[in-house]
Amino acid sequence: MRVYILSRNETLYSTKRLVEAAQERNWEVEVIDYLKCTIEIMKGELVINYLGKVLPVPDAIIPRIGASRTFYGTAMVRHFEMMDVFSTSGNLAIARSRDKLRSLQILSKNDVDMPKTVFASNKSNAKDVIALSGGAPLVLKILEGTQGVGVVLVDSEKAAKSVLGAFYGMDVSLLVQEFIEEAGGADIRAFVVGGKVVGAMRRQGAEGDFRSNLHQGGSAKAHKLTRKEKSTALGAAKAMGLGVCGVDMIPSARGPLVMEVNSSPGLEGIEKSTGIDIAGEIMNYIEKNVIPMSDTVSKKIRRKRDNIGA
What we know:
Elements: E1 2-6, H1 13-24, E2 28-32, E3 37-42, E4 45-50, E5 53-54, E6 60-63, H2 70-82, E7 86-87, H3 91-98, H4 100-109, E8 117-119, H5 126-132, E9 138-142, E10 151-154, H6 157-169, E11 174-178, E12 186-193, E13 196-204, E14 219-222, H7 227-240, E15 244-250, E16 257-262, H8 268-274, H9 278-289, H10 296-308
Parallel strand pairs: 1-2, 1-6, 6-7
Antiparallel strand pairs: 3-4, 4-5, 8-11, 9-10, 9-11, 12-13, 12-15, 13-14, 15-16
């Protein structure tokens, strides 16, 4: 089995764990910086070059695409897919998940519950936007924000109008969401692999911070999902079409509400808080979906593919 991990940094915990898990199975594994890949497109041929050489066609890829490089990264994933390479998450699903508004629209259409959300242009009346969102306190999110950056809690209508006005003045796109006070700054991440929840953790925001992101100083511990939390996580992953993802839910009086479906979830927090070999679960998922190029016929196919780069 030949597997490529599309990652810009081979020293990251998640990347190293994926390499280790593949090596434990004696697979050929390589970390590929997707920004250093170039593609050739010709009649009947799709080729990927890496560091000046044609990249041999793998059996599978594991995309670890950074949010700021979504367009280029998904283009590389798409090229591999067109070469009949299995990807743990498809290029379209990754692109959808990175667009906060689009992902919420998809989840809504598939009856996945979430906080009430309002999206409006800077031509909209701030008072109307606040009223539609249910009134203060409110959470304002920049569409391009990640890891808790660009998320603001406003506790009064006056503050909401002021912040909305400031962001709209800079022509920044915002989502305005109801604030779930009873969550107490906590959320739940369910890690889904191949249509199964393989682990879950409860994250708690740092004191005085309503955001639960670990990058913002939050803490995490293992969490046993309720039946409703599990079905919500699986429904969200299925709606987004992601083979590997982290589904972030916030507990509320009306049940779990999906905040985000992350297409490149980090492994460190979930593995250390639960003790579960998540990287190994991802390899199991690949194993179930890929027939290795091991028999004589397959080897001939591989040689032919590697020779033409397609």
